[in-house]
Predict the 3D structure of the following.
Amino acid sequence: MDKKLIYATVDDKSSLLTALSDRIWEYAELSMMEVKSTAAYLDILKAEGFSVREYLCGIATAFSGSYGTGRPVIGILGEYDALSGLSQVAGSTCKEPAVEGGCGQGCGHNLLGAASLGAAIAVKEAIKAGHLKGTVVFYGCPGEEGCAGKTFMARDGQFRDLDAALTWHPGDTNEVTTGSNAASIQVEYSFTGIAAHAAGNPEHGRSALDAAELMNVGVQFLREHMESKCSVHYSFADAGGLSPNVVQPTAKLIYMVRGESVRKAKSLLKRVNNIAKGAALMTDTEVSWRQIDGTSSTVSNEVLEALLHKNLTEAPLPHYSEEEITFAAGLRTTYQVDGLPGKLTDENRKLRAYVAEKTNHGKSAINNFVFPYYPSTHFGAGSSDVGDVSWLTPTAQFDAVTWPSGCPGHSWQTVSTGKTTLAHKGLLYAAKVLAGSVADLMEDPAILKEAREEFRLTTAEGYDCPISKDIVPTIG
Ligand SMILES: [Zn+2]
């Protein structure tokens, strides 16, 4: 079909989509608390004629909307959760919280979800008009930031029946995401001791805080003996009371254990668990632990990545106004820019030269071009719950420009940009790229066949869900 029709639908729906994105930006709801955001999505999905499923996997803010019949069934993933402490006035080039201590869309998930929905609507219209055949499913995936919502959905049976899944992420480049990233497992360790007067009768006390500190020291010694691509991070969730003259009877640590694969993360976690037991033994305290969440490594699919790249180049790039370029340049003076933009520019000489030329050696305020695609085995040290989807169905993702060049993620600057026309233009572009890619998948079964064959080979070891059957998502 002529993709201009699909792009026109996105443009026709632009005010609906940008208004939705702005509402979600305003709501700025934290992980698994996205109640108003969910209601806003459900209203639109129902009004647009999608068959809606609510409370997916028993999660109040997980849902889907599907349209069409038969195969192929293509999923488009959306997110909408925010981050705490990042409230910010929109469109400002200086740090000024809109609500002191409030939350903000620091990862641009207001744009992410709205563009994914826009793509689903554009595909739906094409199916309705008889231009495409198949089923499109929009997935409302909660809690990306706080608790890996997609992993819970994956554990409980979602995504498996899809022929493919596509998604995107707001960013500072128009670029296919390639390579893999780390699996991760988050666990809370609780130490229990006996309170006592720290000077009067310390011999009766058993310090949970000492145990927690010894666990952290033990893990420091573990770090030398871990495989490469593994990492361990921690925080104190409870250090006992505030009085130093008390032997602290409680302490809690949260650990995040990362590995190249779920298998490696699980095996490293066993050693961390042993260190926790050792710390309890040394201090005559008790320890227990519970898993919070986990994510799998990402399996890339080069067939789908090439398709996304084709559609990134086919969809018309936005035109930015002088005002938008001035805003981007102004915001850019508020953060440090190191080197050239792009995930793989440092390791690919050809790409580096191309990007240097396109960005005037990294000086452009907005990277308004499509990065060439080079399949890569690049390993990112971070984690994403899109990884779990990628073990269940061929999956690919890309970044689209919604922020000025070099803009740091999870910052007040991303929140500030997230409700501007600059960001809206990226949202509409991303919707066109996604919808165009789904159209290709529905029209050319050979692409899906090839993507499935690649998937079969790369996931031969099977999905090893990083979370156990009994845990429930953490709220907030
Ligand atoms: Zn994000």
Notes: Residues 155 and 469 are 8 Å apart (CA to CA). The longest helix spans residues 421-443. The mean pLDDT is 97. The longest strand covers residues 183-192.
